[in-house]
Amino acid sequence: MSRPLTFLAVHAHPDDxxxxxxxxxxxxxxxxxxxxxxxxxxxxxxxxxxxxxPGHPDHxxxxxxxxxxxxxxxxxAVLGVERLVRLGYRDxxxxxxxxxxxxxxxxxxxxxxxxxxLVAVMLEERPQVVVTYNERGFYGHPDHIAAHRAxxxxxxxxxxxxxxxxxxxxxxxxxxxxxxxxxxxRRRREAAGGTDxxxxxxxxxxxxxxxxxxxxxxxxxxxxxxxxxxxxAHFDALAAHSSQMHDSFWMRMGRERFRxxxxxxxxxxxxxxxxxxxxxxxxxxxxx
Length: 288
Ligand SMILES: [Zn+2]
Hints:
Layout: E1 6-11, H1 16-30, E2 34-41, H2 61-79, E3 83-89, H3 111-125, E4 129-132, H4 137-140, H5 142-155, E5 163-168, H6 171-191, H7 199-210, E6 223-226, H8 231-240, H9 242-245, H10 249-261, E7 264-269
Zinc ion binds near residues 12, 13, 141 and 144.
């Protein structure tokens, strides 16, 4: 008796499931594969209403957490997530933020404690495929790094371990994105009257990402998944996180261009119990 195919993604914040794995979640749900999402934090360090940033006196972390919990429920429904597990840690914020030191934060939680909860889910679900971030947390966010470490620690405790993939963007694609972000910034500055006004905000937001090499060398990509068939759900899941996404790259792109451009999700294989080789076009390669 083979186990039912099950997909598990471990993410740091509400919205990461949509931005990193929105395509594959819906794609595999549509194929009748069981899909499970673990979201480690409540995302308290996200924007408040009107784009109020954490640390601002009007930023209420509890309110942000409630809004994002609802948004996550909606996005998960759009993506066909069958089981959503919220670990309820506090968002640690970006590197160097005071929230890093909150004892309730994911960053401060012992890896074994987080991993034990993931092991429990893995033993119940027995996923063949697990997705999370690489050791850099994709872009260096402490919560993404913590999610990575806990996931890898959990997988190490499972016999008959799953195939683990890290989400990735090939360097060749990153070049195109960076060009577009630079162009958008330039246009925004022009629209703001040729001064810095309005530009500061965008620079602040993208600074932490600039410090990290977001892309992955193209030859290191192990899985290239065509997600065109689910573009609308993918877009809708991102849109469900409106408190964080209303001014995002994807929303500015609009649905039509999103359909044309967000055609693929890429992954690097981190464990390979099925001894796969070459680039696969299905994360369940080796299991069907
Ligand atoms: Zn995140």
